[in-house]
């Protein structure tokens, strides 16, 4: 049904009376309609179309074919043109007219309103009475009309207003939440700002305290320097006092010996009383086992008596001056560095390490003394629990010192053939040991990265030197004794001032390990045997490093001749190479 733009006045008045509300826009009706929202009713009449009246459009058959026997060029062209025309017609777009919105009918509006308000009984009464009037013909649909546009617009505005209110409510909630978050963030910001200020204040306070401590420490440096000098002075006095004490002890010992000899001359011998053995045991036959045991006991007794009769050696108190001091002053010849390989001596089948002409250190945990004329071993010192790496002679010839893998060093008395002192203090293998020239001072180098200075008379450690970062393989004195050289497992060689016990310089010729270092007779040239087979020569005056290359494998030991004209080196290939 087409929508009518107008509505009879009587119909509207009847509608108003039925609903109990006025028709004025400013009255209660507008408020009620605005509160409930807008409704649209569209009256549509559906008619059943007859199939006989409908015109069907013929769809052309694309798959046309020309029957056999009727092939004609004109007909073929006509069929192609018709097909092209049909294709153009199908490709054209059909534009449908837009459907206009139909206003909502009055009865639909009222039904929707009652349903929305939940007034079901009123709805039933309205529908029964309304359709009864329609059937009786009292009321016609075309006379009722449609809902005016004002109501529809008011309903739309009301719905939009409701949606806006909902959005406003959500926005208020979001704004409140954002306000709370903002307040929380401001509080956190204030807290962090205050914490930052406190941290800055503490930092400034610590900086001021640090400055004060530096000033305080700087004020102590002169005192520490003075105390250090006093300490060195006391150490020197202690050494002098020890020497004087040793002299006094020697004099007392000499007087005691004189008194003993004087007393022996006036004493009488007491008679010796023996107890007669059992006759049965004397007459009993002796087997081979008992005989061997008796001979072993007697031999052991003889050795014990010999050792008991041997007296311990005394460390010398009046040491002769170091002859190298005057030798170094007289030797003003320039140092030699242009060594060339002169000869290769193949004397051994195994690697050449280090060994002395009279004392040898061995991996069987022993130290042996040899008679070079007879070529026999005259003494064996046993006491180490692991391999012995190095040994050295005291200048007096009465003592031998050895260093071992068992972290200890020992001082052996050659005359009494016993261990006088065991030096404890290192925490790892002791790789080298050497006596200070013409003195009772020992120097040891260990795998615990330290050097130690010992008093051989007491067996106590006097000083330890720190500075190496890797295991120390060897350490030695200069002929004058004023400087120490040491090398470690990464090829770093260090020079130390022995008088001040402080490091002087470090020379890195690594990464191959330095196995041994030795000075020439003048003390100006230092030679190092390296793990890569190179012999490094360091000029202590200029700082230049010279290299001697000739070993086919690792170089273990290096030593200068007394005049410094020849250099000898031993390697793991079993050869001794002579450089001149």
TrEMBL record:
Residues 154-188 form a coiled coil. Residues 280-320 are annotated as: Disordered. PROSITE patterns: WD_REPEATS_1 (PS00678), WD_REPEATS_2 (PS50082), WD_REPEATS_REGION (PS50294). WD repeats lie at residues 355-380, 381-422, 423-464, 465-499, 548-580. The keyword Transcription does not apply. The keyword Coiled coil applies. Residues 292-301 have a biased composition (Basic and acidic residues). Keywords: Coiled coil, Repeat, WD repeat. SUPFAM superfamilies: WD40 repeat-like. Pfam families: WD40. This is Sperm-associated antigen 16 protein isoform X3. It comes from Vicugna pacos (Alpaca). The lineage of its organism: Eukaryota, Metazoa, Chordata, Craniata, Vertebrata.
